[in-house]
Structure formats: structure tokens, C-alpha cells
Amino acid sequence: MKALRVLAGTAGVALMxxxxxxxxxxxxxxGVLVWLGGAVLLHDVVIAPAVLLIGLVLVRGGIRGPxxxxxxxxxxxxxxALPVLLRPGRTANPSVLPLDYPRNWLIALVAVxxxxxLWAAVREFVRARGRTDR
Length: 134
Hints:
Elements: H1 2-22, H2 29-58, H3 64-85, H4 101-132
Helix pairs in contact: 2-3, 3-4
């Protein structure tokens, strides 16, 4: 187990090094810092509190975890997809954004909801089976 942690840590440090190296090519570092700061604020001020509040208000019992997890993933997917979802119409070059991003974003959200529902159903099944086996 320790070897796996060391391997994961080494891979993480290597990827951070690649990211730092790629930042040397950035023409507008202030814009990158604003974008990263906005992403942190979006997560900490909007996404995380909304996930916790919705999970607390709407869901009771054992499925709160899967619902919160699905809401967190959906929020992160939305934050990543927001630039292309809010793009101002068609571009002059059709190869710039060639895919139907709103449709694909909705498909991803449906997949997240399906996985969360399956996760909750399996957890409930295991709990119910555990109660009847005693």
C-alpha cells in the first residue's frame, strides 16, 4: 500500500512539474491567475455550499452520500464546461468548437445521475440484505 502511495505521489509531483513547465508558454499569466482564482471561488462559494445544502434539505438517510457525490461531480462538470456553454454563437472557424457541447454536457450529467442512482440502489440492497440475514 505504501508503494502505491509513493507511486501516486511521484506521478502527482511529475504532473505538477509538467503544468509548471507549460505555464512558461502562457502569454497572459495574470489571466491564468484570475481564471484559477475564479475556479476556486466558484467551488468554495457556490458549488460546495450548494451541494451540502441540497444534500441536507432534499435527502435523508443512506442515499445522502451518493446524491452529494453526484451533485459535486455535476457542479465540477458544469464549471469545466461553462466557457463553451456560454460561448457567443458560432465561430468563424467551425473546427474551433466542432462538437455539440450542450448536448454532450447533458449526456454527462445523465450519466452522473445514473451512476449515483445505481450506487444508491446497490447500497440500499446491501443494507436490506444485511438486515434480513441476521
